[in-house]
Structure formats: C-alpha cells, structure tokens
C-alpha cells in the first residue's frame, strides 16, 4: 500500500497539465523541454555553489579549519531545505484534498503520512544535491581531504530527512495553531515571514563567519571553533570525525522518528478537526453592485489572499525588494562607497554606475514576483464559472493581472524612491528609477500569465503543488531569477558602454518587451484560453 | 429557443456526440437521458459555450453560440454536474459576484437573492465560506446563481443530485415556474420518474447519437419512460 501511495504522490508532484487535446508527440516534447529546463536551472544553482566553494575552500584548507567550509555548506543546505519545506509539508500532510478519501479507506495513517513526507523528501534530496555535491567536489579538487568525499555524501544523505522531519513537525504545529483562528492564512503568512527572517539571520551569521575567516580568523570564528560548538560538529561530520558523525547521525534519526510519531498520532485529529466548520449566521445587508471587470478583479484579489502558499510563493519577491531597499537606504554610504570603488574598474562615471546598479537591482528583484504565474491554475475546476459568464476573455485576462500589478508595482515604486534617496538621484535618475521596477513588474506579470495559460494545471491536491511545483510557476520563478541576472548584467554593460544613454536604452528595452508580451498575451494566449475546456 | 443543429464533437478518434440535432421551444422542459458516457455532458457544455465542437452549430434565441458567445451566455444559465465554486468566497459574496458579471441591478439582486435563498433554505449559511458547504448546499447555491439573472434558458447537468427532498421539490417548482414564464430548461438526468412527471419533451442519447426525441407523451405512449428507455437501450445495443 505504501508503494502505491508514494506512486500516486509522485504522479501528483510531476502531474501533467490539464489535457487540452494535445497529441502524444507534443506531450513528450513538452516533458523533454521541461526536463531540460530543470536541468539547466539545477546547473545554474550548482554553478553558484561552485563559485562560493572556490572562494572558500582554499582558505579553509590553508588555515586548517576545513570543518568551517562544511559547516557553512551543511547549514546553508539545512536552513534552505528546512525553511522552504515547512509549508510544503503542511500543505502535503494536512491540506490535501484526498485526505478524507484516504482516511475512509482501509489504509494505515502511518502509510498516508509516510507517503506524503516521502514526496517532500524527494524534492529536498534534489535541492541538497544541487548545493552540497558541487561543494564537495570543489573541496576535494582544490586539495581537501578525500575523506570529505564520503563524509560529505553521508551528511548529504542525513540532512534532507532531518530538515524534512523538523519542517514536518513545525508544519504540523502551524496547522494545529492555524485551525484555532478564523484567519488561518494570516497566521500562516505571519509564521512564514518569521521563518523567512530566521533564514536570513542564519545566513547573515554564516556570512559574518566567512568574512571573519577572510580576515584571518577573528573572534567570531574562534567562538565557533569550540569543540562542542554545534556548528563545528555539523562541519566535522563531513570530515568523518567519529564523535561528530555519530552525533549528527543520531540526532537525525532521533528527530526524524520523534517527529514522525507525533505527526502520525495527531494526523487524524488535525484532518478531522471541527474548528474550520464553525458557522456564522448570515445577517442580511444591502448588496452593492460593481462592473463585471471590477467584480473579476476583486475575485482575483480574493483568490490571491485566500492561500498562504500563494501569498508567500508568489509575492515574496515584492517583500524582498522592499526589504533590500530599506537595507540599501540604511547602508547608503557603504553602497555608494562600493560602487565608487568599482567605477574605475569599469571605466565609467561613478554616478552612472550608481544609477545603473540601482536600476539593475530594482529590475532584478521585480523579476522575482510570480503571482500571475498561478493566476489561471488557481481557478481549479471552477473555471466554468467565468467561462459561462457573459464577460470578454480580454477582461478575464486583464483581471488576472491585477493582483500581481497591485502588489508589485506600488512596492516597486516605494523601493525606487528609497533607492533614489540612497543614491541622491537627480530628476532624470528618479524617473528612470521609477520606470525600472514598474516596467520589470509589468513584464513579469505578462510573462507569468502567458506561461500559465500555456501550461495550466487544474487537478491539484493543494495550492503548494501549483504555486511552487507546477511547470508554469517553476519556469516563471526560476526563469525570472536567471533571466533577471542576465538582464541586470546587460543593463550594467550598456551603462559602461554608453553611460546614461545606455541606462535609458535598457529601460526602453523593457518597455518594448512589455508591449511585445502584451500582444502575445492578448493574441495567442487569449485564443488558447478560449480553447481551454474544463 | 435552443436549437442544436448537426452537432458533432470528437475527442481524438472517439466521437462523443455524433450529428445530433434537437430543438427546444420557449416554455418547454426537456429531459436529456442516456447512460454514463453517452454524450449528455458534452452536449450541454457545447450549448453553454465552454466546449468547442467539430461541426454543426448551436443557436440560442436564433443566435449562434460560436458567433455571439457573449449575447448567448447573457441569456443562459448553467448548472454543472459537480458544483465546483470559489471555495474561499462566502455564499453571499459568490452570488453578488454572479450578479455583477451578469449585470443584475442592485435593486433586483437585493430582492432576488434573499427570496431565492429563503426558498431553498440556505439563507443562514450565506455568510459561511463555500468551502465549508456540503455538496447539497453547493448545489443549492449553484441553483440560486443560475436563476438569479432571469435567464431565458437554463442548462442543467444532473441538477437533483445531492439535494434534500424539500430542495428537490422546490427546484421542480422553480423549473415549472420558469417555463410558465416563457423560459426553457434542458437538463440531463438519470431519475426517469422525475423526467416523466416534470418534462414536456424528452431526448434519449446513446453512444453520442440521438436515438429518440419528441413530446414526452408521444415518446412514452402507453409505457413508462423507464420501459421505453430500457427497450431503446436493448434495441441499439
């Protein structure tokens, strides 16, 4: 039974999009295309890991603190997996639509829980491999102990179950708590933000440690170097130091087993909890009318705010943009100093480079918002409602852009103003700074919806499968990030080549791209949307 | 009012609806009967314009659903076999949304929604989110939404499934009243007793082909609708 359940979960994980009459050849072509895309994205992230490893490994080996190298990578892998699995496990375990169906069958709760955790574990092993494997290879290649090859792999096998078990436990705690509140999504979003901040705190602490190392081991690193320091134990496990390896493995096993026991025992109670069934008696009130478009747009906004997974995955880019802008404003002098130092390297005026860097950062961060990438799929099986309503398809499309633009454009503009203050921009620069995120957000909103219409998926068990794992969301999120890096580089290059004119051309490029994407959306995508049958 | 002319719909090589022609006039209730997978839902979806078809055409009030999708949708309502709705909305917000997209005036929606909700016994639950509704409550909400904008024709796919006896009775009353006011109803059902007592016309489909269509009395003769249906099934096996 467990095997069958796991097979079903894996099929759901890599579930095909809603069939729209496409032939077998086209389906195979799309599968191959998606496989290549994920390989490319995996390679891109592995490349980042290689870069970080190359800059760290020689120093740690030379200073005899190899454990710090692995501590950094192991903690980074663990934190990333843990933080991003919490809501994945919460959705997989407690919010799947087939929970009650499975519970009604003669299936042990143990098997249901295991099959769901296993699905998350697969993704986590992939994420862990992308981060750790390149680091281990680089470490050995630059002269590190060959023992690290085996130790690194052993820890790589232990980290995903440990992080998944802890994430499942926290996910269970959030689910149990959220059930007691009417605004469950708000509770979940608040928890998400807390964990997100925690992730950055851990990441910053590690980076500070790294900085200390580069300054030839300062007090912070020496503090971590205590034999009983957890960070040191985590790092030493990759070097197969017996006590540390034993501790890491034992902790992983104990936490995994305990977490599983708690979830298995509380699973039925959470799923069948009656908290959500609390009724509110309707009191008649006068209903106000609005135009069909406003009604559609309001419905889209309610869809967005109905799901914590959708808010966090789709809108986190906007939040990050705002946070980084505040960070830049606070550290404005440092930002200016770094750019002024770099300007002779690029042989460009410092003011131009400052503006180009600001424009590129704003644009890059705008390309991480992906609300529109799930806008159509979130209709689920209720798509018939708008398809049977006397509304134009173009109005449906415009309404689906509203949540993305309403969330991202204002935050982009606020960020632009913060950047303008930080770099003491003149009038023209302010205008360019305001245009950059606005156009980039428009591009991303259009691109996301085009991809979602091309690859809709309506048969999902929980929102996380759509906003995080679906083909459309993956392409838009990761494509936006990597495309953004390439475009940011283009922006910097144009400014180096042509100064202020280059920055203007860069902005113009986004304007043209927006127009092109709008024509695609209201042309081919509109026709595709009209053909989609439910 | 509803005219289906030589409708053919294929899924790949499989012919789901084969050259089907049917006409329903104003004031008529027509039952659409057939075994599972016969092509009833496909036909209904094609009529409402959410399923493209390969050949033929469908006219509502003389207008092609292909050429005038907005005009035909404005005078039509649809209740699917499984009432999937926006689970995050409350019942009242969903109905207000439907009123907005169908252009129901404020005064009319403020009169009709309470009246229809009261009639189907769902008033108290209108503030709850649709996600907390039972199948029957969702079905009631879909019925209210369908009748809300006073459509000329209502297309229903198994509308009685999940309804309690009281709501079933009320729906039959509402269907009859709708037709007495000049509207039409085309609905699929497996409940032959209901079809026999409620409908003016009946259409029986098998393997995508219309095997019989006409006035209920003419089709049935002296036999019961159940006997006629089973005999047609056997004859065409």
Features:
heterodimer, A: about 525 residues, 20 helices, about 0% strand, B: Rossmann fold, 2 domains, 9 helices, about 40% helix, globular
Radius of gyration of chain A, in Å, reads 25 Å
* Number of discrete helical segments of chain B: 9
Please compute the radius of gyration of chain B using only Cα atoms: 18 Å
Which bin fits the share of residues in helices of chain A?
over 70%
Strand content of chain B: 25-35%
User: What is the element string of chain A, with H for helices and E for strands?
Assistant: HHHHHHHHHHHHHHHHHHHH
Number of separate strands of chain B: 10
Biggest interface between protein chains, with counts per chain?
A: A-B, 40 and 49 residues
The CATH first-level class of the largest domain in chain B comes to Alpha Beta
User: How confident overall, as mean pLDDT of chain B?
Assistant: 92
In whole angstroms, how far apart are the ends of chain B? Answer: 33 Å
Low-confidence parts of chain B: none
Layout of SSEs?
The complex is a heterodimer of chains A (534) and B (237).
Chain A: H1 2-13, H2 24-62, H3 66-94, H4 99-103, H5 109-141, H6 147-178, H7 184-214, H8 219-224, H9 230-237, H10 242-271, H11 292-305, H12 308-330, H13 332-346, H14 350-366, H15 383-388, H16 393-423, H17 427-454, H18 463-467, H19 471-498, H20 500-531
Helix pairs in contact in A: 1-5, 2-3, 2-5, 2-19, 3-5, 3-6, 3-7, 3-9, 5-6, 5-10, 6-7, 6-10, 7-12, 9-10, 11-16, 12-16, 13-14, 14-16, 14-17, 14-19, 16-17, 17-19, 17-20, 19-20
Chain B: E1 2-11, E2 14-24, E3 29-33, H1 40-48, E4 55-60, E5 63-64, H2 69-74, E6 76-79, H3 91-101, H4 106-119, H5 135-148, E7 153-157, H6 165-180, E8 184-188, H7 192-198, E9 201-206, E10 209-215, H8 216-220, H9 225-235
Helix pairs in contact in B: 3-5, 4-5
Polypeptide structure, described:
The complex is a heterodimer of chains A (534) and B (237). With 534 residues, chain A is mostly helical. In chain A, helix 9 packs across helix 10. The two termini of chain A are 31 Å apart. About 1% of the residues of chain A have low confidence. Chain A folds into two domains: 250 residues, no CATH class; 240 residues, no CATH class. Chain A is built from 20 helices and no strands. In chain B, the strands form two sheets. Chain B has a six-stranded mixed sheet, with helices on both faces. In chain B, a hairpin with a 2-residue loop joins strand 9 and strand 10. The longest helix of chain B is centred in the last third of the chain and has 16 residues. The chains are: A mainly alpha (534), B alpha/beta (237).
């Amino acid at each position: 039974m467990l095997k069958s359940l796991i097979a079903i979960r894996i099929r759901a994980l890599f579930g095909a999009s809603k069939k729209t009459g496409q032939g077998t050849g086209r389906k195979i072509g799309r599968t191959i295309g998606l496989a290549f895309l994920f390989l490319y994205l995996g390679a891109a992230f592995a490349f980042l890991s290689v870069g970080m490893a190359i800059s760290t490994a020689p120093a740690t080996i030379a200073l005899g603190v190899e454990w710090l190298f692995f501590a950094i990578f192991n903690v980074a892998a663990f934190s990333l997996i843990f933080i991003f699995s919490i809501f994945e496990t919460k959705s997989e375990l407690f919010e799947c639509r087939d929970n009650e169906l499975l519970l009604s069958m003669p299936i042990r709760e143990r098997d249901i829980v295991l099959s769901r955790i296993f699905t998350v574990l697969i993704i986590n092993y992939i994420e862990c491999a992308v981060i750790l494997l390149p680091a281990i290879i680089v470490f050995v290649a630059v002269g590190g102990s060959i023992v690290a090859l085996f130790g690194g792999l052993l820890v790589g096998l232990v980290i995903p179950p440990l992080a998944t078990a802890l994430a499942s436990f926290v996910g269970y705690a959030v689910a149990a708590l959220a059930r007691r509140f009417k605004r469950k999504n708000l509770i979940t979003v608040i928890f998400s933000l807390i964990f997100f901040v925690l992730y950055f705190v851990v990441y910053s602490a590690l980076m500070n440690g790294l900085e200390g190392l580069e300054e030839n081991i300062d007090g912070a690193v020496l503090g971590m170097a205590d034999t009983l320091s957890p960070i040191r134990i985590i790092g030493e496990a990759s070097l197969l130091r017996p006590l540390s390896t034993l501790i890491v493995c034992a902790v992983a096993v104990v936490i995994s087993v305990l977490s599983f026991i708690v979830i298995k025992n509380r699973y039925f109670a959470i799923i069948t909890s009656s908290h959500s069934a609390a009724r509110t008696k309707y009191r008649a009130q006068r209903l106000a009318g609005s135009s069909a478009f406003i009604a559609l747009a309001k419905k889209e906004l309610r869809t967005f705010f109905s799901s914590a997974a959708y808010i966090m995955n789709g809108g986190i880019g906007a939040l990050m943009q705002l946070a980084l802008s505040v960070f830049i404003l606070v550290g404005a002098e440092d930002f200016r100093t770094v750019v002024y130092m770099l300007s002779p390297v690029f042989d460009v005026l410092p003011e131009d480079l400052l503006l180009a860097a600001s424009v590129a950062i704003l644009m890059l961060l705008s390309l991480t918002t992906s609300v529109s990438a799930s806008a159509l799929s979130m209709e689920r099986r209720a798509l018939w409602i708008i398809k049977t309503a006397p509304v134009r398809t173009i109005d449906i499309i415009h309404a689906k852009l509203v949540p993305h633009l309403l969330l991202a454009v204002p935050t982009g503009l606020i960020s632009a103003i913060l950047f303008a203050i930080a770099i003491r921009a003149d009038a023209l620069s302010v205008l360019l700074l305001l245009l950059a995120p606005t156009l980039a957000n428009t591009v991303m909103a259009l691109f996301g919806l085009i991809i979602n219409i091309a690859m809709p998926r309506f048969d999902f068990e929980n929102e996380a499968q759509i906003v995080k794992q679906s083909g459309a969301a993956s392409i838009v999120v990761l494509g936006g990030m990597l495309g953004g890096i390439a475009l940011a580089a283009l922006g910097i290059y144009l400014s180096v080549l042509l100064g202020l004119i280059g920055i203007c051309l860069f902005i113009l490029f986004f304007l043209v791209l927006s127009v092109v994407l709008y024509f695609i959306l209201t042309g081919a995508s509109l026709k595709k949307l009209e053909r989609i049958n439910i | 009012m509803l005219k289906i002319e030589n409708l053919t719909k294929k899924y790949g090589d499989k012919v789901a609806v084969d050259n089907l022609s049917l006409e329903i006039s104003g004031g008529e209730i027509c039952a659409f009967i057939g075994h599972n997978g016969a092509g009833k839902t496909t036909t209904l979806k094609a009529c409402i314009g959410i399923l493209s078809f390969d050949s033929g055409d469908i006219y509502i009030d003389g207008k092609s659903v292909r050429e005038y999708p907005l005009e035909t949708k404005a005078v039509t309502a649809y209740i699917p076999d499984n009432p999937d709705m926006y689970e995050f909305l409350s019942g009242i917000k969903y109905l207000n949304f439907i009123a907005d997209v169908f252009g129901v005036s404020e005064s009319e929606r403020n009169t009709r929604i309470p009246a229809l909700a009261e009639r189907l016994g769902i008033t108290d639950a209108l503030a709850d989110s649709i996600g907390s509704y039972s199948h029957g409550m969702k079905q009631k909400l879909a019925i209210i939404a369908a009748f809300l904008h006073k459509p000329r024709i209502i297309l229903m796919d198994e509308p009685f499934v999940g309804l309690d006896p009281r709501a079933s009775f009320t729906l039959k009353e509402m269907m009859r009243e709708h037709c007495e006011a000049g509207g039409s109803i085309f609905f699929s059902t497996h409940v032959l007793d209901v079809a026999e007592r409620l409908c003016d016309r009946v259409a029986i489909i098998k393997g995508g082909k219309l095997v019989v269509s006409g006035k209920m009395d003419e089709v049935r003769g002296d036999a019961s609708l159940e006997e006629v249906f089973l005999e047609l099934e056997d004859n065409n096996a």
